[in-house]
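FAQ: What does a ligand-bound record look like?

Like this one, built around zinc ion:
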Amino acid sequence: MERQELATTAAAISAGDEPRVTERENLIGYYRVHRPGLPLVVINGHIDVVPVFDEGQWDREPYSGDRADGFVHGRGAVDTKGGIAAALWALDSLDQAGVELPFDVAVELVVGEETTGVGTRATLERLPNRLGTIVLEPTSGAVVTVASGLLFFTVEVTGRAAHTSVPWYGVDTGPKVFQIYQALTRLGDERAAALTDVRMPFPSAVPLAIGTVDIGGWRAAVPARGSLSGRIGIMPGENVEDVRAALTACVESVAAADPWLVDHPPVVCWDNEGLRSWETPESDQVVIALDRGRRRAGLDSRIEGMTAGCDAGILRDAGIPTAVFGPGDMRYAHSPNEKIAEADVLEATQVIAHALLAWSDFFEPEQS
Ligand SMILES: [Zn+2]
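The answer part, i.e. the structure of the complex:
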């Protein structure tokens, strides 16, 4: 095993507002021994967690780690301690069976996935050459080969304040913000209907959702300021600039029908770079190995997509063949009473062990 101090990495320097970045470390472990020069398969799991948020909504102490009713409970159980446990168990079982693999396997336990992805960017500096990477996010056991991306946006509307005893002297931003809200919701519905992928059979493969609406600032004044912020999904292969243009045009169409907004146009801001969509071809070794792993563990083939961002996008940007696979249900992640079924962890253990054995098939000498 090796500890990778982020302070020594280029990733830390460009990590923006990542907290305490120079005090944190990744942990990289190898199956049996590291044999530099051999091809490398990497299993990536993140050890950071999101905060507890509303502790009052939890039925147990949030970090209890309690085992009860066939589940392990607590923050991080599904996102992603369960996946990490499955990977380590899988390697332990191969070791106990005396399996020698024709490639090296590294398990990288990274920090910062929930914030900037700095941990995985740093391990890419240490291990840039990989046959592929399995990212251990909860997929309910599906092999995820595609994910939509997203952009975060804010729309700011300016009105005119007035004393609320004479509100007719003001220009209220409230109704204008909600007209934009409704127009964006329609845009989201149109995109959901137009942009489909059989691997993402959800109500939308490219969710457009508004997370905050902020209007006014003083109870006795007509709101002179209003804003709304949210995310718009991006389809794999879709041009990011086209997505920005579609959202901007939607806001402009509302403004064009409002005399005040014609003279005081709303401002659309893009809050950061967002997350890019990614895709790994199903012909790639990492996908075939995981798919065979599922079938050798007695399960059906399940190749799917996801609408959430994770470190897989960073790995794909670096050209690494990547698939996401892990036990447990994403709906328990980032929520109160986070938990993972022990049976799901065991099943994932079998799939990962079989997947690594199946990956060895690519190294079998040619039969004449
Ligand atoms: Zn998460």
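Follow-up question: can I read anything off the structure? Yes, for example: The chain has two domains: 2-146+277-363, 149-270.
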